[in-house]
Predict the 3D structure of the following.
Amino acid sequence: MDALADLIGDSPAMVALRRQVQQLVRSAAVAVRPPSLLILGETGSGKGLLARSLHRAGPRAAQPFIDVNCAAIPERLLEAELFGYEKGAFTDARQAKPGLFQLAHRGMLFLDEIGLLAAALQAKLLTALEQRAVRRLGGTRAEPADVWIVAATNEDLRAAVASQSFRQDLYHRLAVVTLTLPPLRERGLDVLILAEHLLARACADYGLAERTFSPDARDALAGYSWPGNVRELGNVLERVVLLSDAPIVTAAALGLSITSAAGPSPASESPDPLSWHKQMSEHLHAALVRTNWNISRTAVALDISRNTVRARMARFGLGRAPGARAASPSSRSMPAARRAGAPGSTASPIPATAPVAADTRTPPVTPVRMSVRSESREVGFLRVDLAIAPGSDGLSESTRTVDELLDKIRSFGGRIEELGQTAIIAAFGVEQPVEDGAIRAALAGLAAQRMTEQGRTDDRAPRCAAPST
């Protein structure tokens, strides 16, 4: 059970979860076909980590583990990715290609964000699960696909079933066994255990001396609500390690607001599924109106991916009213960054089909003096150049990598100024005065580059995106 060592925590919920996982692994070892598994939990709570732990501990550890984000790829491309296609099935299909179901044959297929899967693909997925076979696009015969299906979502699938946006038969097929990851705010002192682990790992990753927490830092960690869960905790500690040389991490270095409260989870927001569905729709619509229906800015405001915004718009039937005018390009520009000499980039969203690669040139950091509301302030700018990695076809990985880059930049206090097809530009020290805006920009770039270098050994995955500051 060493493969389950990453499931850290001594809270009753985590102890019970580990028991469930251990029992599931023992049962799967003697089963002819492992049961489909549904993992529930808030964003950042570790659903992907749990799926990988199950694969390593399970009977199919020696076989492939394939991870696909159902919200990160447009519907038509996702169908080709999952089920494959034959030569000539569509334009540019110059040769046949197996789908992810076939690549995961006798292994595990992890379907993340399953709650945002389009209705047409839900029907095809159900057929594949029932027949244990898939037919490629343009194909005439079904091919066997023996896969262990593990799905995950932070959506309330029961509410989605009630609102008829998710198939009931598919839900019951996926939820043969259900595991629920508790949010970090409900795990008690687990946050301190995880913080010690993540702090040690961050120090080791950057080759720095080990650090410890002061008593007030422990109080701050335990008192914060952690809306971003374990992912947010890891980002906070990585930022602290890079921005401070002190051997003891204090509450001031953490910069947490004890009064910050996380929003209620979808499962507990309302006992009425239809009411929850309406609230989600109204919340998204309000965010879209505030950003003048700009998908990228809405994603940044709600702290979700752009494709998740698009999927939810389609699910809730949201769209700009006919005849409504978009904001002028000048209203979406970044005058402060341009006055400071930051390179510009197009404002179009990054396509889900563009894996990112590195531009390894990193010029010296040059602080910029600028006037913000009659106040002289030093700010820093970070530009991450994006390019298509030659020979890569990791469609789901590209969008996920960009979203993780945005999350990493924000964890260092950066404000996303432009999100373009070729670059991300962020500003540090504009909203709040800081003395180290340029240093934060450089360290955020270093953390982003290291993040994309780690755990990206899959040939289908995008290569590193390197910063310039």
